[in-house]
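Researcher: Good morning. I'm working through a list of sequences from a screen, and I'd like to move beyond sequence-only analysis. For each chain I'm collecting a predicted structure so we can compare shapes side by side. This is the next one on the list. No need for commentary yet; just the structure.
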Amino acid sequence: MGLFGYIYRLRRHLRYSKQEILSIILASILFGIILGFDEWGYGNIVDINLGIYNTISYIFYSFIALILIRTSQKMMAIAYGYEGMVEIDPRALIASILIGIVSLGKLPLMLSGRIFFKSHKTLRVGRFRQLYMHHELGLSIIAGIIPFLILAIFKDIPFLYKLSWITGLILLFTWLPIPSQDGIMLFFYMRPALYIIFMIGFGVLLLTYHYSFLIGLILALIAVILATIIIEKNKVV
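Model: Good morning. Structure tokens for this chain:
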């Protein structure tokens, strides 16, 4: 499949259903409330206008971040011959908002659901049409990191900095091995060792993100190498 063939596939099959859009909007509203929970003023002074502005801003950022993540995953899935569909578990959203309230917004547990895949006969011409390849599905999920990496390159721009950071947070929590989230699927699609190594690298990248993206990448690479050596040497998983 060449570039023009892939673009044709995207034009025909890259879409969102009304249910998917509504689910993403609902998740964005709840994430905006969580992220803006403790930004309703300065110190002990409450500013209603500021709080509303911050909450609406975070809702907007969350919506854009979710669309970027899910679109990237859908595009990768189409390349492999699958249709990706977004599914959000209401119980996960309730857990997110409750933990956000209890922690006073200090723990933004943003569980954005999962993307599940359906084999498409037309898209999988020349492949085993009903056979799901785990590495293809795993890479389709991991493709959600692409917009984060692109945005991070331009993080000196304030708008893109906040958008990339929220995108990274959503990816981190969604990739945890929790039922109804991408993470549980990623855990089974990859070797457990590879999953652990991948999450260590991504975690280090986020921890150092505020200082320097380049240094973060270098430290993440070092962490991945060390984790690989330790796991392979001890044959942990």
